[in-house]
Specification:
Rossmann fold; maleylacetate reductase activity; binds 1,4-dihydronicotinamide adenine dinucleotide; Maleylacetate reductase; binds the ligand O=C(O)/C=C\C(=O)CC(=O)O; six-stranded parallel sheet; oxidoreductase; ADH_Fe/GldA; alpha/beta; 344 residues; Dehydroquinate synthase-like, alpha domain; 2 domains
Length: 344
Amino acid sequence: MVVVHETPPSRVLFGTGARHAIPDELDRLGVQRVLVVVSASARAAADELSAALGERAVARFDRPMVHTPVTVTDEAMAVVADEFVDAVVTIGGGAATGLGKALVARSPMPHVAVPTTYSGSEVTPVLGETEEGVKQTRRDASLLPGTVVYDAELTLRMPAGLTLTSAVNALAHAVEALWAPDATAVSDALATEACDLLLGALPRVLADLGDVDARIRLQQSAWLAGTCLATAQMGLHHQLAHVLGGTFDLPHADLHTLLLPHVLRFNLPHAPRAAARLTRITGDDPAAVVARLVASYDGPTRLRVLGVPEEGLGAVAERVAAAPYPNPAPVEVGPLLELLRAAW
Ligand SMILES: NC(=O)C1=CN([C@@H]2O[C@H](COP(=O)(O)OP(=O)(O)OC[C@H]3O[C@@H](n4cnc5c(N)ncnc54)[C@H](O)[C@@H]3O)[C@@H](O)[C@H]2O)C=CC1
Ligand SMILES: O=C(O)/C=C\C(=O)CC(=O)O
């Protein structure tokens, strides 16, 4: 069998204070009319950037939304057109990055992504968009942000809950790369290092949210994990997150966090290589370790608490089983419904 490994070409500026290099990066790109897309949490960083850019910061859009609803993208596209925007800088979580990608898909232009969570979207050519409650996810090289700026100083105020769930979102990217049918020596190496680094750094950060060194390590693991998502195919875990998230408009990272132990339990008996690596890293049953980690920091553990109606689970199982993402365990309605009921 021949597997194809592609390394997506992103340029990464990494380091505390890296955000101050954004104006020079925009000079390098030769752009003049910049739209700043910003999550509510990153207003101060956007103000700082706008002041540094002066007249080049022609517009700001501050309402990116999780799961990238096309109605919100349409609003932002009107700003792109009205202001003759020729580049977008996104500062914030995966919702801001996703909106940047959706704009680039409609109006090709340079995208500088400045992530403030661990979603990893900034290094992937993946975009999920939601229209009328249905989330469609696609992959295209043109969606990958050209420049990524990782500045751990922008993550120091991330609360414990988001730190935990966003890091587990990253962990899920690495875990699924380990059992992906197109895993390669490179994706295995990235995924193994991502899991090891992340599981070491996360308890340190949760013990001291302002520990810059541990935050840097978490950001490095998110970068590695995002790169796994960029190169290897997603499986059942991401598919469940996308179908549930799009259908019930749920918080993305919370959903990943509560699903991961269940999907690990479901898949690991069918994925011996991934099981061996994860057992070596965790020193225990990987599903139990992740479940304990989430529970001990009061993370989300029940779909019903997120607001998913029990009677909606059957339709989710049927939709996923009708067109499953590639997955080591067979994806059939009955076992899937059991998994969902356990998570509910
Ligand atoms: N295409 C891809 O490769 C990927 C896409 N995604 C997408 O990204 C979105 C989820 O992104 P997330 O980052 O989980 O959440 P998010 O972008 O929705 O942010 C969640 C909340 O956290 C706040 N926030 C962000 N950074 C913060 C910080 N440093 N301190 C305090 N608050 C902060 C935001 O303002 C928001 O209220 C979903 O739409 C998901 O589908 C997620 C992973 C990969
Ligand atoms: O589920 C994830 O973390 C990875 C991919 C997506 O979320 C797709 C997207 O909404 O951009």
